Amino acid sequence: MSGMRRPKRNEMGGRLSSLALPILTKRLVLRLPTLADTDSFMSEAHDPRLLQWFSKGSPPETREEQVDTIKKIRKAARAGDSLSLGLFDRGSGASVGVISLSSLNWGDMCAEIGYIVSPNHWGKGYATEAVASLCAEAFGCLNLHRIEAQVWPSNLASGRVLEKVGFHKEGTRRQCDLKGKTWLDCDTYGLLRGENRLGPT
Ligand SMILES: CC(C)(COP(=O)(O)OP(=O)(O)OC[C@H]1O[C@@H](n2cnc3c(N)ncnc32)[C@H](O)[C@@H]1OP(=O)(O)O)[C@@H](O)C(=O)NCCC(=O)NCCS
After folding, report:
1. 154, CA 20 to 30 Å: which among 44, 50, 116, 170?
2. Among 56, 116, 124, residue to substitute to test ligand 1 (most atoms within 8 Å of Cβ)
3. Does domain 14-144 have CATH number 3.30.300.130?
4. For residues 179 and 181, what is the distance between their CA atoms, to the nearest angstrom?
């Protein structure tokens, strides 16, 4: 296992290079996407069950846009700016979602986490497994002190994922997100080092 976890040279830069990829959980592999993932990423991205949870931007419309997105993800990781990892079933290799660490702030040792699971895989505990494991790596290898998430109050599944891992709901940012013509509140959830209930999964 230790051999598998050695980071590939030039895959990640800056302080992100302390994090060894892939991250393995009980059922998932968390790794940087490659261009070989283009078609599987596109296949479920426009499912209306997912799109309802987007406010800005939309998933890539064309294969070329998806290729471009994967290239940008890899470039951002190499630059140490942000980390977006695909979630893949350890057995079949099927893509089941994505997870990210962004807004990396090395001064305050904090970052924001985001995640999406493909609707056909909802309710199997994949998001919880991935969030707990990435947080464990971020507190361990990256030495972060705090990880936060922004969640619409109506997104009960996402709030539940965070609560299961040990995040605290810290407050509500009122009307901070414009979706179409509607202002939406966002709940801020925070997890401090030592609060991850599930640890690596
Ligand atoms: C949020 C999301 C990632 C959850 O993925 P998942 O793999 O299904 O999550 P898990 O199976 O680990 O856990 C989901 C939990 O929410 C609960 N849940 C799901 N729908 C719910 C609802 N409508 N009301 C209350 N709880 C709900 C599940 O029962 C489960 O809790 P439990 O284990 O206590 O039963 C997935 O729904 C998703 O991709 N949504 C769209 C994108 C998104 O919202 N991302 C997060 C942005 S902040």
Report:
1. 44
2. 116
3. no
4. 6
